[in-house]
Design goal:
The protein is 30% helix and 26% strand. The chain is built from 6 helices and 16 strands. A hairpin with a 3-residue loop joins strand 1 and strand 2.
């Protein structure tokens, strides 16, 4: 019997049987740890299809959890046209309790931390860096996983080793950096800067490390257009940073549940589409 396991900020997770899950990516969008009341058209399909592209792109580095994205392979009750392109049938894993964040540029919470004490997650960085500057080399800055509505907590690599052990922590760091570096190099050829991103991993029944969840989407990453990039300021973005900036500039209170204006939703949707088309080289079919 199919059982709904969880309903997250964006994804619905269903247990198909003892070793398979179905991940359904909705058009919900979250900001500042709140699920916003207005859906972003096509967002779920874009996230799923960008993830599918990257999973395939890095399969030489690490195996992933995808079994199928074909509608005909899903249980009958999910074989509906609206689910085409937004669902993944995946291998059930023992998910690790660490979010694997890789930063290639100094921005966001990393920039705030650097301004405060010159470090990010315990890593000492060179003096004199400016906002949005490219780091000498990408850094691995893990965090804990928070429940819906709570904040993830940035932790040091040493803290990560205490949670999952030194051998696994080292493997997460190595693989995360390898994936980021390969994908960032590719994205640069498409005019996209991947400033930072978040990966999630699990272990299969044999204890093998598997890449899971989503990969390098506009929800899990900061994508900047290279043509507009300027060091020393915040950047224009292909991800939901536009929506975050709108919230901050207007004083909108996400917790109040007021609808987001249609023009803001349309612009956000277009940014997701633009990211998909630039990265995959394909036109998005609505």
């Amino acid at each position: 019997m199919i059982k709904k396991l969880s309903s997250g900020k964006v994804r619905e997770i269903y247990e198909i049987d003892g070793d398979k899950l179905l991940l359904m990516t909705t058009d919900r969008i979250s900001a500042f740890d709140y699920i916003l009341p207005t859906l972003v058209p096509n967002k779920g399909k874009i996230l799923t299809q960008i993830s599918r592209f990257w999973f395939d792109f890095v399969k030489d580095i690490i195996p992933n959890h995808i079994l199928s994205t074909r509608l005909s392979d899903f249980p009958e009750e999910f074989q509906r046209p609206e689910n085409d392109g937004r669902c993944m049938l995946v291998k059930k894993l023992n998910m690790l309790p660490i979010e694997c964040i890789v930063r290639g540029y100094i921005t966001g919470s990393g920039w705030k931390s650097y301004q405060a004490n010159g470090t990010v997650c315990g890593i000492k960085l060179p003096e004199g860096l400016q906002e949005s500057q490219k780091l000498p080399e990408a850094i691995f800055t893990p965090s804990t996983k928070a429940a819906v509505g709570d904040h993830d907590e940035n932790i040091s690599f040493e803290q990560a080793t205490e949670i999952i052990g030194p051998e696994l922590a080292e493997k997460l760091r190595t693989k995360s950096l390898e994936i980021y570096n390969k994908c960032a190099e590719y994205a640069a050829t498409k005019g996209v800067i991947i400033a930072d991103t978040k990966f999630e991993f699990g272990l299969d029944e044999n204890g093998e490390l598997i890449l899971a969840d989503e990969v390098l989407t506009p929800d899990s990453s900061r994508f900047w257009p290279a043509s507009d990039y300027k060091v020393g300021q915040s950047q224009k973005s292909f991800d939901k940073q536009y929506l975050r900036d709108w919230i901050k500039s207007t004083g909108y209170q996400p917790e109040n549940g007021e609808p987001i204006p249609q023009d803001v939703i349309d612009t956000t949707s277009q940014k997701y589409i633009e990211a998909y088309e630039l990265i995959t080289g394909k036109k998005f079919e609505k």
